């Protein structure tokens, strides 16, 4: 009886090892990965910006329906297309880049529909505070990159956050909204 229990335990651990062996690591391609944001401007138009410098990795196991993300964003690289606006966003009123030069998103909860990722749940660290964020996929695909001859996976992900959760409240008293839409376009190359 004891021998069959040990054999069953070994069989289960080897199956677990096979599933784990299917996980692959992907490096984010900085030329096809962008983190952008949108916030309303007095109910009239939408202010948009992006972070030009970012890096990270994704671990993805489509068969095991699991994954991990580790994304680091250089907050000093914020780019709205207007130097004065960039400087204001870099100031202590908003991103306080002198004190908090990086933004971090770390996730380990992936949801799937078949082998397609539908959402990624993780933690966003901004201004020294960490709160949960769920990025929902509007697109997801994996393909063999014809130039690199390697598998590339990625998609378009979105979330709406309340910026005051991270202590970013400038402008709330005169009409800037709390809600900010985050858009993460990512492609990552299998290593």
From TrEMBL:
Keywords for this protein: Signal
InterPro entries: Lipid/polyisoprenoid-bd_YceI, TTHA0802/YceI-like_sf
PANTHER family hit by this protein: PERIPLASMIC PROTEIN, PROTEIN YCEI
Keyword Signal on entry: yes
Signal peptide interval: 1-21
Protein source organism: Rhodoferax aquaticus
Domain Lipid/polyisoprenoid-binding YceI-like: 25-189
Name by which UniProt lists this protein: Polyisoprenoid-binding protein
């Amino acid at each position: 009886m004891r021998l069959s229990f040990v054999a069953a335990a070994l069989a289960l651990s080897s199956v677990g090892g096979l599933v784990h062996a299917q996980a692959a690591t992907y490096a984010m391609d900085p030329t096809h990965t962008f983190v952008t944001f949108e916030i309303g401007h007095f109910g009239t138009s939408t202010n948009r910006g992006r972070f030009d410098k970012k890096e990270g990795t994704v671990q993805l196991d489509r068969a095991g329906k699991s994954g991990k993300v580790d994304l680091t964003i250089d907050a000093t690289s914020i780019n709205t297309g207007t130097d004065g606006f960039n400087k204001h966003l870099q100031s202590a009123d908003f991103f306080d880049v002198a004190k908090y030069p990086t933004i971090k998103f770390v996730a380990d909860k992936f949801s799937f529909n078949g082998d397609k990722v539908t959402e990624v749940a993780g933690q966003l660290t901004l201004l020294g505070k960490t709160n949960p964020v769920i990025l929902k996929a509007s697109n997801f695909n994996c393909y063999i990159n014809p130039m690199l001859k390697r598998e590339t996976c990625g998609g378009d992900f979105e979330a709406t956050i309340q910026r005051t959760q991270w202590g970013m409240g400038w402008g709330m008293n005169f009409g800037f909204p709390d809600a900010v839409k985050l858009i993460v376009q990512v492609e990552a190359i299998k290593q």
